[in-house]
Sequence to fold (185 residues):
Amino acid sequence: MKQLAGVIARRYGTALFETVSRSPHLKLDEIAQSLTHLRPLFTKFVLQNLTSHTLSKTEKQDLLDIVFSSFEKTHVKLPKELTFFFQILLENQRISYLDRILQYFLEKSDAKRGLLRASLVSAHDMQTDSVKEFEQALSKVTGKKTVLNVSHDPSLMSGFVVRIGNTQIDASLKARVNNLKNSLH
Fold:
């Protein structure tokens, strides 16, 4: 089942990517940014209702319209190609794969734009200047413009953890204490 989800995500993600890339009036940066902001609106509850067998197609379309109008209150109006893409996912019963599809699209979009997404988890809230310094340092090391998703985890005690793809750099006090504990046993 997991393999099927990957195939579906690649197929639909690629279709969306090619549609956006080939369109003269759609900008890849703007669509990627819109999808990044739209993605959290598709909560577990919303997706459960969109995949429910008890709701009619009309009710599901109404729910999709509510999500779009909620997004458009705080962001830009979504292009018709994008809303049509979501309708296709709904009609083809592929909306349950939405998160993977959008992830695949965003990865392709980032690769084309030369972007690298990374996560930074720190023990304390970080100032904007510090985050920018981290982004610049990672950009120098990787040779790509780096965008950080920053969060904090007090359990780290001190330091940070950076994740880039499958690579993790753990410079936290928690990791050092665990390493010391393991070496003593």
Notes: The CA atoms of residues 15 and 105 lie 9 Å apart. The mean pLDDT is 91. Residues 115-184 form one domain.
